[in-house]
Design brief:
Blueprint (H helix, E strand, L loop, with lengths): L3 H5 L10 H7 L3 E4 L1 H4 L14 E4 L7 H13 L3 E7 L6 H15 L3 E5 L13 H5 L9 E6 L14 H16 L3 E8 L3 H13 L6 E6 L4 H10 L6 H8 L2 H4 L6 H13 L5 E7 L4 H12 L4 H4 L2
Parallel strand pairs: 1-2, 1-8, 2-3, 3-4, 4-5, 5-6, 6-7, 7-8
Keywords: Oxidoreductase
GO molecular function, one term: methylenetetrahydrofolate reductase [NAD(P)H] activity
Organism: Rubellimicrobium mesophilum DSM 19309
Length: 307
């Protein structure tokens, strides 16, 4: 069988998004790193007004680079939410220094508080809860915690969700006593079914924290599989593996339309369903992800919106 017809095949045109999908995606957020943010000349040219931009902290990145990125993006009119990974922070003094820099230089008042991916903690912190208990985030207006719809074997090696749920109950209690808005920002997933089951499980446990569901933006299939394996994505990885076996799709870029459409339809049918917002991991590029989201929501980048 010749692959020539498929090599010549043009990418499929995006389908017209449904009203439910447009509503579900509206207000999306996006994640960048200093090195990827450098490739974007002006975020106002690609992001709608008010877009929240998470700034991921990768071990080895200098705090000066993190703060400079936050300052630049905030200066262009966007809310910035830097990561605070507990296992990468040596002690209270380092955390206080990071917070002071972010506040003083970039006006940061939001943060994603997470344990981080390091197996060997840099110092005294191992969990997001320990960071919160320092009291140094008092005064922040919004605090997000990490969520894992397909499980987290670093926390529950036995494959259960016992420890994760215990931590969720702590975060639920924290949300009740803080003035900050609290939500769960999740790892990306490629299948709506485990996401729906996870959100329903939280609600059944009395955990009503809003969920900002992670979605991988358009990217090459090989890129997504690499990131999915590295980030510990679980059952939904099978969606990519199945796609890789389909020669008609193997050479086409992946776009997250199916998973977003399914989640949007479920939210439309179940308004109380706990997903509040979509968070995009731009694994195939920031501009590519932003264009995809803007097309499906009808939103306009800030520069165009301002004339």
């Amino acid at each position: 069988m010749s692959l020539l017809p498929f090599l010549r095949r043009k990418p499929e045109a995006p389908t017209t998004p449904s009203e439910a999908t447009s509503r579900f995606l509206s207000g999306w957020s996006i994640e960048v790193m200093p090195r990827t943010a450098e490739k974007v000349e002006d975020f106002r040219a690609i992001l709608p007004p008010g877009t929240r931009v998470y700034i991921a902290h990768i071990d080895g990145t200098a705090i000066e680079d993190m703060v400079a990125t936050a300052k630049r993006i905030a200066g262009q009119g966007f809310e910035v939410m830097p990561h605070f990974p507990a296992r990468s922070i040596a002690d209270r003094a380092m955390l206080a220094d990071w917070i002071a820099r972010y506040k003083g230089e970039a006006g940061v008042k939001e943060g994603l508080i997470l344990a981080g991916g390091r197996a060997d903690p840099a110092g005294e912190f191992t969990s997001s809860m320990e960071l919160i208990e320092t009291g140094l985030f008092d005064g922040f207006t919004r605090l997000h915690f990490a969520g894992h719809p397909e499980g987290n074997k670093d926390i529950d090696p036995d494959g259960s969700d016992r420890m994760v749920m215990e931590a969720m109950r702590w975060k639920q209690a924290f949300a009740a006593r803080t003035d900050a808005k609290v939500a769960l920002a999740t790892q990306f997933s490629f299948d709506a079914k485990p996401v729906i089951a996870w959100v329903d499980r939280l609600q059944a446990e009395g955990i009503d924290l809003p969920v900002h569901i992670g979605i991988a933006g358009p990217a090459k299939l090989q890129t997504l599989i690499k990131f999915a394996i590295a980030c510990g994505v679980g059952p939904s990885l099978q969606v990519l593996q199945k796609r890789a076996l389909d020669v008609t799709k193997l050479l086409l870029p992946y776009e997250p339309d199916d998973v977003v459409d399914q989640l949007a339809a479920h939210k439309a049918e179940n308004p109380a369903f706990g997903i509040e917002q979509v968070h995009i991991f731009p694994l195939g590029g920031i501009s590519t992800a932003a264009t995809w989201a803007n097309t499906r929501t009808g939103q306009t980048p800030a520069l165009a919106a301002n004339g």
